[in-house]
Amino acid sequence: MEPRGAYVTIDRDFHPIGSKLQVLYRGDWDDGQLSNPPQNEYIEVEGKENRAVVRIDLPACGMMILA
Q1: CB-based burial of residue 60 (10 Å sphere; 0-12 exposed, 13-18 middle, 19+ buried)?
Q2: E-assigned strands of the chain?
Q3: What is the pLDDT along the chain (67 residues), one digit of tens a residue?
Q4: pTM of the predicted model, to two decimals?
Q5: From CA 66, how far away is CA 33, in angstroms rounded?
Q6: Is the dihedral of CA 58, 15, 25, 32 positive or negative?
Q7: Domain range annotation of the chain
Q8: Going by C-beta distance under 8 Å and a sequence separation of 6 or more, which residues neighbour residue 18?
Q9: Rounded Cα distance, 47 and 3, in Å
């Protein structure tokens, strides 16, 4: 299946627009990435319709953990 994406609203008091969230886990990582997670993968917080959002793109039934 094709990856799908969505904007997810987050709390702008904790994560202001322009800040970055680190990707701690992605359900589509391979065994090497799961054994040694990337330390430099980030998603930037954007402003959209007066909200703080992050764009998440994952395959069907995928998941991601951000910090």
Answers
A1: exposed
A2: 4-10, 20-26, 42-44, 46-48, 51-58, 64-66
A3: 677 899 999 999 999 999 999 999 999 999 999 999 999 999 999 999 999 999 999 988 889 999 9
A4: 0.83
A5: 15
A6: positive
A7: 4-66
A8: 44, 45
A9: 23
